[in-house]
UniProtKB/TrEMBL annotation:
Keyword annotations: DNA-binding
Protein name: DNA-binding protein
Organism from which the protein derives: Planococcus lenghuensis
GO molecular function: DNA binding
Domain of life of the source: Bacteria
Length: 76
């Protein structure tokens, strides 16, 4: 699916200026139709997959209990 820069900015939750700069730098692939840039949003699928995996790993790490330290001695 192709989107314009404002639509892509909303899709990525980024400012339009940043998306425009990334297009001009070549960090986001786009096609210029003579009046505007069109961006194929399927290029972001892998990014969103990796983001979900990172969120899951962070949540698993956060919920892992801290093991007791065997070097700590009970002084009571």
């Amino acid at each position: 699916m192709y989107r314009t820069i404002p639509e892509t900015a909303a899709f990525l939750s980024m400012p339009e200026e940043q998306v425009n700069r990334y297009v001009l730098e070549g960090r986001i692939r786009a096609v210029h139709d003579g009046t505007q840039y069109l961006i194929n949003t399927s290029q972001f699928d892998r990014h969103f997959e990796q983001l979900e995996i990172a969120k899951q790993e962070l949540e698993e790490w956060r919920l892992t209990p801290i093991p007791e330290d065997p070097d700590i001695k009970d002084e009571d």
